[in-house]
Write a structure and sequence with these properties.
There is one protein chain. The protein is of the alpha+beta class. Among the domains are: about 130 residues, Topoisomerase II, domain 5, CATH 3.90.199; about 80 residues, Gyrase A, domain 2; about 130 residues, Topoisomerase, domain 3 (Orthogonal Bundle), CATH 1.10.268.10. The chain contains 21 helices and 33 strands. β29 and β30 form a beta hairpin. α2 packs across α3, α3 crosses α4 and α12 packs across α17. The longest helix is centred in the middle third of the chain and has 41 residues.
């Protein structure tokens, strides 16, 4: 019987194997993701990047709670470094990260409509990239007055408390905010596989909307909450359809633009409010870039004149410039007008959810009502305990002398409480309370005053129990709190609303001057744009050695150019973006200007006009492809189209066809044919290989194509064909065109 072969032991299972392979274990990628990546991802989502229903991330909550326990609500300011050090007992991150959190929550930095940290010193500015905050040892801080509403009743079991990271103390899992801070405070964070971007809303408007929602969950939210609000101001460009979509789904975007004024005496445009998503340095850098590129010629200078009074960007305008037109242009081309993306992703019961405004209010009110129930239950238990003690004290009132006698006649201290319990029929808690009464308080007046509270306590307990059972009464309590917040912390709107249909959009075509220009392309790809006046005054054209003219045509400065290359790519450029040159200059080198691929060269340039008509590509293999010019029109500002034509054979000529006409093809064996363009049917695909036009003998190629009007053929009938493909006829001497070149060679 053959011996059974033992299974081969893997190298990494062999204890005798040493080195790198001994430590390598096979593990499915799914198991690796589950055991290694998922805990990290969930930690980032739940404990770092996504805010919860109270509107805070864990880092915010730990900082504010530390400041609250330090007595900084209503107290004097203390050094920020002291706060940062104390916060490290709850937050296991470094001091720099904690201080950055404090800076963002501060009044001085200005990132929040309702800041929670009352700061003193340089905390930087949200609208500046370079204006950084001072070190924590130089600045001071305390809690802002609004934090009284954030920590309201936190000591009355309104929220759960959990252990900190080392179990040495406890911290709240949420803060019992008396208003929907999740909508008031702007928040953004990037987690693993998801992100959150919540725009801030006005405190007064949010409270009023919440009141309306509590009264009627089906109310129209946009009546009291028309749009977000930003601490940096700026104008919100209001599109109701976009805003309704954001309110409904929690996703979308809306536009915000800077606010400005014109100072006619100085001829200066002053920008004093920026969109929340940009900085003053970013705007200045972009304007400088546009001026350098020649896209903005109306500005002499732009400078940052921000001081203690606030933001100020000054734009020196050239004489005669219309400030409204210039600002329309800047809104279009810079971040002076920017879009704010919304992604209302919030943690609810530990799970991330993207919610609309109504859903957020629903979750917040449910959570707040539960907090109120917990507070009421806590107060109810306290009052019941107090009533229980007073009821025991009432029993003592019947015979104070007996109570004194029991205490005096008891030999052991440990027997005082049991003897009182037996003597008056009270429980241990009541007996302990009686035994602790001071000697000076053992008088009839004191005891009568205390027992008189019994009726008030019983009425209060009855009221609390009724409130605990009534959703309507709990809602009324929340509404009263919200109304008090509106009165105590008035918050005027900072970002005015401008309706989108009232805004005059910048028309780039209108801003470009319209005048005729002449364009000249050389064989090596140099392009000259020359005005009519300059052309009249110019002399002979200048070219590099070995270079010469290829083609020339008239165009408008507002037009576009399509540039076809030998890599079957089509480049698009606006004529207005090209610098004007003179005939005596070499011109613009298109491969460099258009950032073409290495070794790529220009075949031809054409003016597409209004993109009507067709293009006919003639290939070396004798085929031709007729493609609608509209196939090269793009709605976006794309500068490069790959796959402009077929790559099966090199392009010999490209003709722009605006109407049907006769065309001429010529081969390398001096054969030519004339055919009508209607014989070529248009193709929908840009990369079509086309159809056969000229039947070529082996080793022969198509060399030339042009319109009949551009040729010198006299005996047209000799070369005309009625069907394609055709071989054509040999050129007669009188029809030869030795000096004429193809469109690609002119």
């Amino acid at each position: 019987m053959a011996k059974k072969k033992e299974p081969e032991q893997k190298k990494y299972d062999n204890p005798n194997v040493v080195g790198l392979h001994a430590a390598v274990l096979e593990q499915p990628i799914t198991e690796t993701l589950e055991t290694n990546f998922m805990p990290y991802a969930m930690s980032v989502i739940v404990s770092r990047a996504i805010p919860e229903i109270d509107g805070f991330k864990p880092s915010h909550r730990k900082l504010l709670y530390t400041m609250y326990k330090m007595g900084l609500l209503g107290g004097a300011r203390t050094k920020s470094a002291n706060i940062v050090g104390q916060t490290m007992r709850l937050n296991p991150h470094g001091d720099a990260a904690i201080y950055e959190t404090m800076v963002r929550l501060s009044v001085g930095y200005g990132a929040l409509l309702t800041p929670f940290v009352d700061s003193k010193g340089n905390f930087g500015k949200v609208f500046s990239r370079d204006m950084s905050c001072a070190a924590s040892r130089y600045t001071e801080a305390r809690l802002a007055p609004i934090c009284a509403e954030v920590f309201r009743d936190i000591d009355k079991d309104t929220v759960d408390f959990v252990d900190n990271y080392d179990g040495s103390m406890q911290e709240p899992s949420l803060l019992p905010t008396a208003f929907p801070n999740v909508l008031v405070s702007a928040n953004s964070g990037i987690a693993a596989g998801m992100a959150s971007t919540i725009c801030g809303f006005n405190l007064t408007e949010v409270c009023e909307t919440t009141i309306q929602y509590l009264k009627d969950p089906g109310c129209e939210l946009m009546t009291t909450l028309p749009a977000p609000d930003f601490p940096t101001g700026g104008e919100i460009i209001y599109d109701r359809r976009e805003m309704e979509n954001i309110y409904l789904t929690g996703r979308g975007s809306f536009k915000v633009r800077a606010r400005w004024r014109y100072l006619p005496k100085e001829n200066i445009i002053e920008i004093y409010e920026l969109p929340y998503t940009t900085t003053s340095e970013a705007v200045i850098d972009k304007v400088a870039e546009l001026i350098k590129a020649g896209k903005i010629r109306e500005i002499n200078d732009m400078r940052d004149e921000t001081d203690l009074s606030g933001l100020r960007l000054a734009i020196d305008c050239k004489r005669g410039v219309d400030p409204d037109k210039l600002m329309q242009k800047l809104f279009k081309m810079t971040t002076l007008q920017d879009a704010f993306p919304c992604n209302f992703n919030i943690l609810v019961a530990g799970s991330p959810r993207v919610m609309g405004v109504r859903e957020i209010l629903e979750e917040w009110t449910a959570w707040r009502m539960e907090s109120q129930r917990r507070r009421i239950y806590h107060e109810l238990q306290k009052k019941k305990e107090k009533l229980h003690l007073l009821q025991g004290l009432g029993r003592i009132l019947l015979d104070i002398d007996k109570a004194i006698a029991i205490i005096r006649e008891t030999e052991l201290e440990s027997e005082v409480v049991p003897n009182l319990m037996m003597g008056f029929g009270i429980d241990q808690v009541q007996a302990e309370y009686v035994a602790e009464i001071k000697l000076r308080n053992i008088n009839r007046e004191y005891i009568l005053k205390r027992t008189a509270e019994t009726e008030d306590l019983e009425a209060a307990i009855e009221d609390l129990e009724a409130t605990l059972q009534s959703r309507r009464r709990i809602k009324s309590l929340i509404i009263e709190e919200l109304r008090a917040i509106i009165r105590k912390y008035p918050s005027p709107r900072r970002s005015p609303i401008v309706y989108a249909d009232e805004i005059e959009e910048f028309d780039e075509e209108e801003s470009v001057p319209d005048y005729p220009v002449s364009l000249f392309l050389s064989r090596e790809g140099y392009l000259k744009k020359i005005t009519a006046q300059s052309l009249r005054m110019s002399g002979e054209h200048k070219y590099k050695d070995g270079d010469g003219p290829r083609l020339s045509f008239e165009a408008s400065n507002r037009g576009e150019l399509l540039i076809l290359t030998d890599r079957q790519q089509m480049y698009k450029v606006r004529i207005a973006e090209l610098e004007e040159t003179k005939a005596s200059a070499l011109g613009l080198y298109l491969p460099t200007r258009l950032e073409m691929d290495e070794g790529e060269s220009v075949l031809t340039v054409l003016d597409p006009g209004d993109y009507r008509g067709e293009l006919i590509f003639f290939f070396e293999n004798g085929k031709a492809a007729r493609v609608p010019l509209s196939a090269y029109e793009t709605k976006t500002r794309r500068k490069k189209l790959i796959g402009a034509c077929s790559d099966k054979s090199p392009v010999v000529a490209l003709l722009q066809l605006k109407e049907e006409q006769d065309l001429v093809c010529q081969a390398s064996d001096d054969r030519a044919l004339v055919f009508h363009s209607s014989l070529l049917q248009p193709k929908t695909s840009r990369t079509t290989q086309g159809v056969g036009v000229m039947a070529l003998k082996k080793g022969r190629v198509l060399t030339r194509a042009m319109t009949l009007a551009d040729s010198q053929i006299k005996n047209v009938s000799r070369y005309r064909v009625r069907t394609l493909p055709a071989a054509g006829a040999l050129l007669r001497p009188e029809d030869r065109e030795e000096q004429q070149m193809s469109l690609l060679e002119e």
